[in-house]
């Protein structure tokens, strides 16, 4: 746990954005949550809140990419539906163990900021692009043709994001289980 | 266009939440956007901003329900994939004609408020439930068995919500076209 104050602030920003949205997350809350020295924020993030939230978004995307890549190491016989279940499982675990307060930071930031002129939108685009590319690459490694892999990655990420929101709304992992089961034949076709 | 100031405020709240999120939408902005008399807000919405946003969310859900029901009147041979395309088409039109600033008000409000103790969460649950029920009812009218209709409704709404966000992020309706085409065989199976 040898994280620097700077790393802790990025992590805290991601966690607070997950629960309260980007607009609802103040710099002061992040500094406090990260137990960072007062006054250090300006030093580490001269670009202000947009820089902080942008880095939090990219951190979250890299976390999602790592989850996607980890599937291959754990699955004996990797399948597209198995990968999708693996992606959803992380969310089911998080909701079951920690409650439904926290959603996806990418979705939360996008909901608040895409319609504005925030520079975070570019980071969101980069982050989602990395995530989709990672999913498509894993599908290609399972012999899905490249073009179809790209399209299925779009379906998987869109459906997962919507189901995460639905699960939070209902306080129930049911929607995640439903989309995993229903998409399976399509993904493995 | 004989809308009352009260109706205009609900509509304006929905439109502003779509673009800025629930946290980013202030009561004063809504009153101004609705060209409502100053001071009338408290009169019409004694429950404050939560009441206003809650009504905006239910208004948006009823709008989505109406869109779902309209498919049967326009389609010669209704199919589940045709219904999904019909739902997505409205978004593609809105984005193409009016730009990508405005997303789904249900998603926007959910992203900001589900993790908080806002009373809007109950309205969101009611709204999404109405929407899912309407989709399932249309599928049943196309001879999809009731249990499967319910599950497909969850898939359709989750995937649509995620694809709306992805389209906004990329400033491109591509993700909506992709999910409509890819889900078609699954929905019509």
Number of separate strands of chain A: 0
Give the ordered list of helices and strands of chain A: HHHHHHHHH
Mean pLDDT of chain A: 95
- Residues in helix, % of chain A: over 70%
Low-confidence region ranges of chain A: none
Oligomeric state, counting identical vs distinct chains? homodimer
Mind summarizing the main beta sheet of chain A?
A: none
| Shape label of chain A | globular
Distance between the termini of chain A: 43 Å
- Would you state the CATH class of the domain at 57-187 in chain A? Mainly Alpha
The CATH architecture name of the domain at 57-187 in chain A reads Orthogonal Bundle
**Rg from alpha-carbon coordinates of chain A:** 17 Å
CATH superfamily of the domain at 57-187 in chain A: Tetracycline Repressor, domain 2
CATH topology of the domain at 57-187 in chain A: Tetracycline Repressor, domain 2
Biggest chain pair interface: A-B, 48 and 48 residues
Structural class of chain A: mainly alpha
The tally of helices of chain A reads 9
Strand content of chain A: under 5%
